[in-house]
Amino acid sequence: MGVSTSAPEEGIAVVTVDFPPVNALPVRGWYELAAAVRAAGADPKVRCVVLTAAGRGFNAGVDIKEMQRSTGHDALIGANRGCYEAFAAVYDCEVPVVAAVHGFCLGGGIGLVGNADAIVAANDATFGLPELDRGALGAATHLARLVPQHLMRALYYTSRTVTAQELRQYGSVWRVVPRERLTDAALELAREIAAKDGYLIRLAKAAINGIDPVDVRRSYRFEQGFTFEAGLSGVADRVRDTFGTVREQQS
After folding, report:
1. Is the peptide bond before 21 cis (omega within 30 degrees of 0)?
2. How far apart are CA 91 and CA 86, in angstroms?
3. What is the pTM of this model?
4. Higher confidence at residue 65 or residue 6?
5. What backbone torsions phi and psi does residue 212 show, to the nearest 5 degrees?
6. Which of 104, 106, 113 is nearest to 133 (CA)?
């Protein structure tokens, strides 16, 4: 259990997340993921990183139970900082990152894939931000990199999900394949990227990041301020404990 790194082929590093039962990451998990991605990208032998997950789904976001067990705001601060570090590690990775997504990709999972360079998805993959149902905010920055603005807002306000096939129509998913083909499909793309010159691919990653119209680190940090405000006000705990039921919000 945890985060592991393997090297199945020359030039490719695979970072795998495994936090049963649903890959809802505790604070330490986000930091472990950030460290693994940064280390893989810094390895001069690596020219592409594949980010994948074991188990039922790619990522279910923050471990809410960890937050509910804690007192004060340490868990909230830890989750905010840990997510920020993990998302930034994917974005800032020195080489391209291919996200291989299966099952659910929720909350923090959107932050990871939204900052990845390419997404290969299984045909059972779904993507969404149920943050408002969990007493939180954030990662609209990253959802906006996957879908058009008005759809992003509707998805954010309703906590609905979209399928991999729908994201493929918007061009944000490279390929959609049967679940059993996901690893092979992700490695196929990674292999094509890794065939490039290592120095040049690093220059390309830096150049593309440099022309991004939105500073994803600053934008996400701005969102996190509202998450913390929700925590301080007490509304986060109230909504989180009821999973955002309409009845409780209207009472």
Report:
1. yes
2. 9
3. 0.94
4. 6
5. -60, 135
6. 106
